[in-house]
Fold:
Amino acid sequence: TPIVSWYILKDWDNLCVFIKKKIPSKHIKKVDNIITDIDKILSSYFRGQLLVIIFLSLYYCIFFSILGLNYSILVGFFTGFLAFVPIIGIVFSFIIVSLLAFLQFVDYMSIIYVALIFIIAQILESYLLTPALIGNKLGLHPLVIILSIFCFGFLFGIIGIIFAIPMLSIISIFLKKWIKYLNNE
Structure:
């Protein structure tokens, strides 16, 4: 994936010229508008997701340090980064951090403290960060987002879970354009 991504980024201008040559001239403006809308949605999604990851990483680092967990900065950034993967990232990181806390403190209360840290982080992310930084810009209902995560996860596995929200945004752009096109006829 990194190698293919590098080549795509390296030859992006040539790829755009090649694609524009293949589009009939009467449709270039429409395609340009759709591509611009997709670019805006995806860039706002990834910028918002990056801000959520940074905030959660700092949150986890601070509270794991307060808990006294060894390697709290490394574990906090790892946990915040895994928040990028909906549902699975949080579950996986919770299991890892709970195991680390239990092995370090040999106390079941440490698992409860870790659970409280994760619950508060999920509340902050779900009700404050994600709606403010991502959800409002995409214009998608939270129930539709959850349903898309399950559907894309079922169809495409972990990759589907990671890209469910951006793909849903792209599909919604096409549906809006199609409905607008049908209404104009």
